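Suppose a colleague, Dr. K., hands you the sequence of a protein chain of 98 amino acids and asks what its three-dimensional shape might be. Before reaching for any lab equipment, you can write down a predicted structure in token form. Begin with the sequence itself:
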Amino acid sequence: MFAVIKTGGKQYRVEKGMKIRVEKLNQEQGKKVELEPIMVADDKGNVSFSSGKVVAEVLSHGKHKKVTVFKYKPKKNYKRWKGHRQLYTELLIKDIKA
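The predicted structure, expressed as tokens, is then:
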């Protein structure tokens, strides 16, 4: 059984027991979070849309690796560096209910 969930403006395909990193959620570590799925499919191929729920546990919070943005204009002596580290929340998918 798997589900497609939407959080932080992105969609993720999740299964029970899977660990995923999503954009930061304002939940404490160890708390359970209920996410509404866009789609739920079981092993037999039955698909249901916009029904059910996905239960996940917050494992940790952190920052991804740094992404460097570099702007450059040739012959104009223009160079700019900028770095960004996106915050994330790591979730463990506990249960998927159709």
